[in-house]
Amino acid sequence: SSGINAEWPLRPGENPMNIHRWRKLEGSDPSTYEMIQKIQTLQRRLISKTEEVVSKEMSIQEKEKLYIDLKQILARQPGPEVAEQLQIYQQSLKDKTKQMKAMSSELNMCEAQNSEYRYEIETLVRELHDAKNKYYMQKRKERNLKERERHMTGGMIPPLISSQRQESVNRFTGGGFNLKQAQKA
Known about the structure:
With 185 residues, the protein is mainly alpha-helical. Helix content is 78%, strand content 2%.
């Protein structure tokens, strides 16, 4: 191989300055030139397709990352069991609300009845108080009347009691007739 390189500049018809040997063959061998052009176009296409593949891979990685994120979010979301449980809780809440409303109306009725009873009790207490006052006033009047009679009689035995004890006193009825005289006759 070193002998070929040494003889190479000495060959007639070759240009030692021409580094790209394929340019020299441009006109001499058309099939090789066409092949080189095909190779270059294929290389360009390969480069563009590689760039497309890289961009597609990056897009796929982004989509996979988004998929994983959504999958994690979905894993945190409630499942159908939770939805069923939620429906059960909602129905229970409706039932408890109805029950609470019924109890509330019952409580209102009891409070109204309680108010009526309190008013009736207050009325009865006032009537009792008035009756007691009347009774005590009547007792005072009677006591005062008795005391007056005692003062008037001067401490003597009241006439009703004295007439029952004294049989010698004449008794009169109705028109002032003496009962003892009517018995004698």
